[in-house]
Specification:
Elements: E1 6-17, E2 20-31, E3 35-39, H1 46-53, E4 61-66, E5 69-70, H2 76-82, E6 84-86, H3 99-108, H4 121-125, H5 128-137, H6 153-165, E7 171-175, H7 183-196, E8 201-205, H8 209-215, E9 218-223, E10 226-231, H9 233-238, H10 240-247
Helix pairs in contact: 3-5, 3-6
The chain binds adenosine-5'-diphosphate (ADP).
Adenosine-5'-diphosphate binds near residues 17 and 40.
């Protein structure tokens, strides 16, 4: 029986931009096996938090721990190798390569950052079984031999998630995974995210509150760089300050 455990945590996280405090005193705990949403109006600091957690930005102060290790001063590539992976890190899918080759290329780039040319075709062949497995996990097995560029928008986003899985993330950060999607694709992606969260943690920025209510176990509401409220959907949606500040009621 799995006791939920914190895989990623931030304490007193702060980031200033030329005197402007974009993220202020943020505490955040992300649990294994759970889907955690970061919500809040534009400018609330959500993107900055993602950049701080993935180490694309250095915090002005505060501390970040990944799987019990202090990563406050760790490089983005190292953090990715340690298992904290952001979806659009590899979101540049190659439209002229097949779906399968996109995943095989991702499997060749251990840090998920930077680019490495294929060493040899036989080295690539060795990656085929794992690549097919990842396509199976996201339901793209039937499209393995199609050109990535020919996929629908929704399935391209799913392919991005598959390439992210090449890094075997323990914590998956998804930046608006449903953005621009129709009802059907939202359902498909929700199912994929749910299955991915069974053996890892998911932290996602999401604007669609219906999705958040349906999918997320825990919600952190941001406003002007600070955490306004945190809890499950029922709790935060009834919070007076959240209703006023975020939902406008
Ligand atoms: P969100 O993702 O919630 O919309 P952001 O994290 O993008 O919010 O932005 C939070 C605040 O920080 C905004 O007021 C934004 O203008 C500011 N900000 C973000 N990045 C920078 C930057 N590189 N330089 C200056 N200000 C920034």
């Amino acid at each position: 029986q799995d006791v939920p455990r914190v895989v990623l945590s931030a304490r007193g996280l702060r980031r200033d931009f030329a005197g402007f405090v974009a993220v202020n005193s943020v505490d955040l705990d992300v649990h294994h096996g759970k889907i955690h949403a970061l919500i809040g109006p534009n400018g609330a600091g959500k993107t900055t938090i993602f950049n701080l957690l993935t180490k694309f930005l250095q915090p002005t102060s505060g501390r970040i721990e990944l799987l019990g290790t202090d990563i406050t001063r760790t490089s983005p590539a190292k953090v990715a190798r340690m298992g904290l992976v952001r979806s659009f890190q590899i979101s540049a899918i190659f439209p002229h390569l097949s779906v399968l080759d996109n995943v095989r290329v991702a499997l060749q780039r251990p840090s998920g950052l930077g680019f490495q040319f294929w060493r040899s075709l036989s080295a690539l062949d060795e990656l085929t079984p794992r690549a097919r497995e990842l396509l199976g996990i996201v339901g793209l097995d039937d499209a393995a031999n199609r050109l990535a560029g020919d996929l629908s928008y929704g399935r391209k986003r799913v392919l991005e998630i598959a390439t992210t899985l090449a890094l075997d993330p323990k914590v998956l950060l998804l930046d608006e995974p449903m953005a621009g999607m129709g009802h059907e694709d939202v359902g498909t992606i929700s199912g994929i995210i749910r299955s991915l969260a069974r053996d890892r943690a998911v932290l996602m920025v999401e604007h669609n509150l219906t999705v958040v209510a349906d999918l997320c176990d825990w919600i952190t509401v941001m406003q002007r760089g600070q955490v306004l409220a945190a809890g499950d959907y029922a709790t935060v949606s009834q919070d007076e300050r959240v209703r006023i500040a975020y939902m406008g009621t």
